[in-house]
Design brief:
248 residues; Alpha-D-Glucose-1,6-Bisphosphate, Chain A, domain 4
Length: 248
């Protein structure tokens, strides 16, 4: 009798724990997923990665760009970056291939950047879809002194988005400062495939995120961004001036 009582209590406790686990997962899974933009436009911004209670990661990178202006970075994304050779120059040894989808000359919003690149040791095949920055902020922060570009990031070969990103470039004395932020683990289906949406709902459970998202991915992305933006800052003034001279 005593053993039966212990078994019943253990069974009841297990059921309660499972119910609590599922309830917490459901509660966190359906929290609003609007990307937090605190500090992106202000000076209070530091490099680092942080894991949230819902299992997602936030990666922040601050890059000083001496001799660069916000307009130069706007020129790079919206006008100059067109070929795989351009893309490889941006990060030799880590950028391998690129193409554009729905790209219009001189514009970035609405276009999708299709890339193959190494982030850490892993080859990533990504679709980076650029959206109106007003989706991340209350208004579009772009002006003559500031360039802001925001995107939804997903798998290139599957109709699944997995995160978001923003780059903010502001002019400062002697150059510019870039604030980059990435949000990893916000999974959503692209298109109308019901199976993908069911997969996305499962993937957004905090327990799944904690198992699937490695800390190394966040730290590798942090290092990747630091390196590629520093490389870009090294050659961007030269190609910007060359393009300006060609129009004279």
């Amino acid at each position: 009798m005593a053993s039966e009582t212990v078994m019943k209590r253990s069974g009841a406790s297990f059921i309660i724990l499972v119910a609590l686990f599922c309830g917490l997962n459901a509660a966190f899974a359906y929290l609003p997923t609007q990307a937090p933009t605190d500090g992106l436009l202000e000076g209070k911004f530091r490099t680092g990665s942080e894991r949230f209670l819902d299992g997602t990661y936030q990666v922040s990178v601050k890059t000083s760009l001496p001799g660069v202006t916000a307009d130069m970075v706007r020129f790079w994304f919206a006008a100059y970056l067109q070929t795989t050779e351009h893309y490889k120059r941006w990060y030799p040894g880590a950028h391998f291939w690129m193409d554009w989808e729905a790209k219009r000359p001189g514009r970035i919003v609405g276009a999708s950047h299709l890339v193959h690149e190494n982030i850490g040791p892993d080859l990533m095949k990504l679709r980076i879809h650029f959206v109106d920055p007003a989706r991340f902020f209350q208004t579009d922060p772009n002006n003559e002194e500031t360039f802001v570009v925001c995107a939804i990031v997903g798998e290139l070969e599957l109709p699944v988005d997995t995160g978001r990103m923003c780059h903010i470039v502001r002019n400062v004395p002697g150059g510019a400062v870039m604030h980059s932020r990435f949000w990893l683990g916000q999974v959503a289906g692209r298109g109308e495939t019901s199976g993908v949406f069911r997969l996305a709902a499962l993937a957004n459970l905090p327990a799944i995120r904690f198992m699937a998202l490695r800390r190394s991915l966040a730290t590798d992305l942090e290092e990747h961004c630091k390196t590629e933006m520093s490389i870009l800052g090294g050659f961007l003034p030269e190609i910007y001036r060359a393009d300006w001279r060609s129009t004279l």
